Amino acid sequence: MIDPIAKLRSPRGSLVSVYINRQPPATRAALVDLLKGLRNSHSDFRLLKSLKADTARIVDMVGDIDSSNAPAVAIFASSDDGIFEFLPLTHPVADTATLGPRPYLRPLRSQPRPMRVGVLVADSTRARTYLSSGGTLAELGEELIADRGKENYGGFSGYEEHRNRQRAEEASKEMWRQAGRRLLEAHQDQPLEMMALVGRDEDFDSIAAELHPYLRELPQARLRVDISTVTPTDLARFIDEQTEELRTRRAEELIERVLAEAARGGEAVTGLKDVLEAVNAHAVDHLVVAGPFAKPGVICDDCGWLGRSEEQCPVCEADTFQISDVVAAAMDATVEAGGKVDVVTVASPLDADGVGALLRFRLGG
Ligand SMILES: [Zn+2]
Residue 1 is part of a domain; what is its CATH number? Predict the structure, then answer.
């Protein structure tokens, strides 16, 4: 979804990027305000003319925004360059508008990444399997039933009772393995990031033991509940909580790695100045941005060089463009160069630096 948008270019800097939450009946007023603010912060006559045309066209979209199911939308427009893109979003955004040679993608890159979770709802006699992906829960196959035979052992000898019990246990294990195979298929189709086991505490370890090692290695969440009364809504809520926790845990680990590596002078840097230098050197493997951290800066649209205030690009000598958020431009450049980007929302010591990066190689100098 981001890729074709990321390639949009406006050589004269007239590309408008707008992010707006659907907020009827106030969407129109919010949009008009946002674009007025943008007009007031620019003085170039030619830009203002182009912005006026785009403003009219963007405000015309209010009906489409208010009637869509999406909580927010993004619009990218430049009448100068024949660009007009309308993109529904899955999560709310901060209302934002920018003008520049390239699209403003930070709100898009900050939307939580959807996670794939394999869900196994089971006890010793029944099992259901689900795949949760991007907030939707889909059942995989039909309910499985274990044929545990006669469970009442009254009147059998001790030996027979033992044999029957073993046979019943084997039937449950076979059912759990079968459920596990469905989830393994989903995992091989596209990797799962978490497994959720739903049922009785006393079954969990036995169920987990029957899963393929690939599934057993995943983070595992366990919901203790009566499976005859659990609803899809209960499952969805549980998965939401657990994926949110996993995101937080991963963010904390990532920040710890960046800070530890930077502290020992290894392959990581922190702070905007060093991060921009690393981005310009195509050295960033994983950029980590602390929440809303943003700073104005400049970009050379010819070669992509990023700086804080230089009017001319030190690499190719072209004039630079002022941009309101050079951190966002660093995120774009990192992704373009094949690296990863995470916007983390947990409070951490990285908040003081605002930004940090794991590097592909140590920078000289
Ligand atoms: Zn340049």
Answer: 3.30.960.10
